[in-house]
Write a structure and sequence with these properties.
Radius of gyration: 16 Å
InterPro entries: 2OG-Fe_dioxygenase
Low-confidence stretches: none
Order of helices and strands: EHEEEEHHEEEEEEEEE
CATH superfamily: q2cbj1_9rhob like domain
Strand content: 35-45%
Organism: Enterovibrio norvegicus
Protein name: 2OG-Fe dioxygenase family protein
Keywords: Dioxygenase, Oxidoreductase
Number of helices: 3
Bound molecules: fe (ii) ion
Helix content: 10-25%
Mean pLDDT: 93
GO molecular function, one term: dioxygenase activity
CATH architecture: Sandwich
Length: 211
C-alpha cells in the first residue's frame, strides 16, 4: 500500500554522494533548454514483487504541458544513464530508499530517475527549474543532492499553490540529503543559483525520482 506522508526528508550514509559524484562529469548537455548549463541522463525502473528492481528499456520522456509550461508535450530524448553507475550499491540504495519511503513497492510500479547537473558562474544565474513553481505530474517526487560546489542559492522550495508568495518549506539540500514529497498535494521550485567563488564554476548535482 502506498504511504500517505506529505513531506519526508532523510540523510543517507556519506559514501553515497561520494560514490556517485564522478558519474556527473560525463553527462551530456540537455538539448531542450536554451543554455549550456544543464546536463542530464535518464533511466526507468520497475519493481518486482520480491523487492527486486530492474531497469526498463530506454525511452523518450514526456510531460504534459499542464505541468511543464516550458517543454510540455515534447518528447525528450535524454541520454541513457550509465549502467555502471546504476549497478553501484550507492545508487541501488537510493532506489530502494525511494521505493520503501513511498510504499510503492508493488509489482510493476515504475520509478523514473533523472540525473541532472546545473552549472553557474559568478556573473550569470542559472535556473535549476526553468518552469518555475510546478508539479511534476506524479504521485511522489524525490530530490537527492549529490553535490553543491561553490553554490549560492539553489533553495529547494515547496509551495501549497503555484501563486503562493512564501514557500511552505524553504531549505538547502546538502549532499546526501533526500527529500520526498507528495507531488499531487504540493508544488515545488528550485531557486536560481550563482557561483559563490570568483572565477570558479558553481555546480549543483542531483537525482530526481518520480513514481
Ligand atoms: Fe520538478
Amino acid at each position: 500500500m502506498q504511504n500517505t506522508f506529505l513531506i519526508e526528508a532523510f540523510q543517507t550514509p556519506s559514501e553515497v554522494a561520494d560514490t556517485l559524484t564522478p558519474y556527473f562529469f560525463s553527462l551530456k548537455r540537455d538539448p531542450y533548454v536554451d543554455s549550456d548549463v544543464r546536463f542530464r541522463s535518464y533511466a526507468r525502473f520497475t519493481l518486482s514483487s520480491s523487492g527486486g528492481i530492474s531497469r526498463l528499456a530506454h525511452a523518450p520522456f514526456m510531460q504534459s504541458s499542464e505541468v511543464n509550461r516550458v517543454v510540455g508535450d515534447v518528447l525528450r530524448e535524454f541520454a541513457p544513464m550509465s549502467d555502471d553507475m546504476i549497478q553501484t550499491p550507492a545508487f541501488q540504495h537510493l532506489l530502494k530508499s525511494f521505493a520503501s519511503a513511498t510504499g510503492i513497492e508493488k509489482e510493476g510500479a515504475q520509478v523514473d530517475v533523472h540525473q541532472i547537473r546545473v552549472t553557474c558562474s559568478v556573473n550569470d544565474t542559472s535556473a535549476p527549474a526553468p518552469e518555475g513553481i510546478h508539479q511534476d505530474g506524479f504521485r511522489f517526487v524525490g530530490i537527492f543532492c549529490v553535490q553543491r560546489k561553490n553554490i549560492a542559492g539553489g533553495f529547494t522550495q515547496i509551495f501549497t499553490s503555484p501563486v503562493d508568495q512564501h514557500p511552505h518549506l524553504n531549505t538547502v539540500l546538502e549532499p546526501n540529503q533526500f527529500i520526498i514529497l507528495d507531488d499531487a498535494r504540493y508544488y515545488h521550485h528550485i531557486s536560481e543559483t550563482l557561483s559563490s567563488q570568483s572565477g570558479e564554476e558553481g555546480i549543483r548535482d542531483v537525482f530526481v525520482f518520480t513514481a
